Fold this sequence. Notes:
- The protein is built from 3 helices and 7 strands.
- It is α+β, with helices and mostly antiparallel strands.
- The chain has 2 domains: 1-33; 37-138, CATH 2.40.50.140.
- It has a 5-stranded mixed beta barrel with strand order 2-4-5-7-6.
- Helix 2 links the parallel strand 1 and strand 2.
- The protein starts with a helix and ends with a helix.
Amino acid sequence: MYGKKVKFRFLFIILIFFSLTLSIFLVLKSLEENVVFFKSPSDVKLLAELENKKIRIGGMVKLSSIKMSSDEINFIITDFKNEINVSYSGIVPNLFSEGKGVVAEGYLKDRNFFEASKILAKHDENYMPPEVKSALEDN
Length: 139
């Protein structure tokens, strides 16, 4: 009923569609592993269950909460409603200090303790990350 050219074109279109669908699926699947969600300390307290996924927690460094030892720094992030204790091993940015905005990336150990693998405070004293600003305004 259909000629060879029509059958070949139909098969070619199906092959292109299948290849395109497969490549889009693979790209989205690989990006899924790199997504890091932002949460405030209040959001952490409201979590139904803790997942072992990398997240970012942001807020203000509580006054008089920074405690440094030779290989670790401990501090408290607050959104003025709830607080979370953070432990970090590594070099902190120069602008990291008490009363300033901070975003810590890492893993939750429980609802009150966070182990950071990265501290993001690379801004001047007047700048506040948009995520932190909106989280503080919501609370």
